[in-house]
Amino acid sequence: MRYPIANKVVLITGATGGIGTATAKALHARGANVVLTGRRREVLDALTLELGGDRTLAMPAEVTDREALDAVVGAAVERFGGLDVVIANAGTVVDPPATIATVDELQFERVIEVDLLGVWHTVRAALPQIIARRGHVLVTASVYAYTNGAVNAAYAISKAGVEQLGRALRAELAPHGATAGVLYPGWTDTPIIKAAFGGNAVATKMLRQAYPRSLRTPISPERVADATVRGIERRSARIIVPGRWIPFSVFRGIVNPLFDRAIEHHPKLRQLMLELEQQAIELREQPVHNADSLTRENGVTVRS
Description:
By secondary structure, the chain is an alpha/beta fold. The protein has a single domain, classed as NAD(P)-binding Rossmann-like Domain (Rossmann fold). It has twelve helices and nine strands. It has helices spanning 18-29, 41-51, 66-80, 105-132, 153-173, 201-210, 213-216, 221-233, 246-250, 252-265, 267-285, 291-298, and strands at 9-12, 33-38, 56-60, 85-88, 91-94, 136-140, 179-185, 238-241, 300-303. The protein has a seven-stranded parallel beta sheet with strand order 3-2-1-4-6-7-8, with helices on both faces. Helix 2 (41-51) links the parallel strand 2 and strand 3 (56-60). Helix 6 runs antiparallel to helix 11 (267-285). The longest helix is centred in the middle third of the chain and has 28 residues, at 105-132. The protein starts with 8 loop residues before the first strand and ends with a strand. 44% of the residues are buried.
């Protein structure tokens, strides 16, 4: 099952964010040809300049736009002769955090559109090449795929769906000689976790109440990238990083009911949830002079 990454052609969505950028650098350093997509052209250009253009192709694309992803795959085939690996990594989160009862509906749906359907679009666009070249698919889920998603429900729903997509792909690709895997990062030091690490006082307090320090200590994107490259080269079904989250995944059938009950009955967490809801209500009641601007600036934080 060894799958050396040197000379392989790898497509990465969300390549202009922390994990995506670090993974692109790690793969390129191991000799891969990298195809990078993201929403920010200037970041893609800077990353291409850093890596060098010989083994790098960068194209801005929205993962919600299937035609754009088809174009990226086509460009990869034209430039490098094919596509061996796809990493569906682009993601977003509701910002500021909110409960299901108070979250902005458009934000909630946007997260699912990017984090779940965006993965689906990416994978489906790349699958003909992956099957033809007996390659590998890696979808980025999260530890939120199996831990409670309170005040982060859209993200958790999406990541649970991504996990199921990856598991089904693994079984369905086996007859073709191709493989798939799921990446489960814990909290990683990227902008996407800012709310829970000082960006929102209530969310930060909730995290400290719900998880021990050992689980809520962020790791670097480079650590995730290193684990990702090793996992691809082993065609791993699961990449869980940091490893301290592995028991929670293995024993989720036991841990989850206990954790859910603990959150439900924790008096401090209950109070903090009410405070977070009040914040959302007050934010919604603020006068809006430019709705389009508000959506872009305060709507979502996109890792792309």
